[in-house]
Input
Amino acid sequence: MERTPELVTLEAAPRSAEGCVNAARPPAGKLVDAQGRNIHYLRVSLTDRCNFRCTYCSPAAHEPPDALLSRAELARLFRLFAALGVRRIRLTGGEPTLRKDVVEIVADAAATPGIEDVAITTNGHRLAELVEPLQAAGLGALNVSLDTLAPERLRGVSGQAARLDRILAGIDAAAGRFRSLKINTVVMPGVNEDEVAALVRYAWDRGALPRFIEQMPFGGGVPVPLSEVRRRLTEAGFTLAPDVFRGWGPARHMRGRDRDGREGLVGFIGAMTENFCEDCNRARIAADGGFQACLGGEDRVQLRDRMRAGDRDEALAEAVAGALGRKAPRHRMEEAGAGLVLLAMRGIGG
Ligand code: SF4
Output
């Protein structure tokens, strides 16, 4: 039986002249999807533009700048979703640091009452120069994409503009400054499987959490099953034991130890062979303002157009509730191409 999502009644929420929720005292809200899962984590794509061209990402036809959510629109959505129970916001892209107002947007998110944590996922290219302002703006957690430690290989995967030295300088500048620093690696067959051990050691040496991600069918290529990644780590002399640690996202963790006595956690995100949808806690807003209850779903609600058409927050909240009420138990990305049309990764930010 389809479950009507519980929706916070916004009537009680104090509001501004435009009828927007005044986040000064957001009511304790709860967003629950059709499966009864509590949605308290929102991923927001700030832009569909990127300075890299990663092979596993799907190029999106760029939206004109005014099609992207403005800083004010983003801040309004942060307030609305905080009032609806979201407690964590991750800023993604494309490459979010390409937005000139990225630091201000982080500050807006961090200043939104009810939001406990603001995170960003970046390719690291502008990180070295942004670490201090992002930290000062209230950024709590940082994920950096790093698929290889070989400069030439990086150019092969992410395009000629991708400079490894800049990414590594950014990671070194960020190490130890945030509540969480994670290094995300998409493992690609015949490309970087031979580097998994080196990437774990690299991350541990900087107090970062290495995570291996199965490729999803947004771009070219097939996934390397995480079981193969674990096999290679074991072959490289690591011992791995399941660990109960859970972050906000889908990663499952193992406690690892290498021959030299280094020890730490390793994260695994297996969308294709180790499904994690059962305890999904998130939803997304795409760069063009489309609300998407599931990454692997086709259902979207265009919040930007509704805001620009003058919709009040109740109407936006009802639309969000409707989308969550239609959210399927799990993704069907393994059916991509077989009738399932996935949205461009660059526009939804993973
Ligand atoms: S694929 Fe969809 S249902 Fe599964 S974890 Fe991601 S957002 Fe949730």
Q: What stands out?
A: Residues 41-348 form a domain with the TIM Barrel fold (CATH 3.20.20.70). The chain has one domain: 41-348.
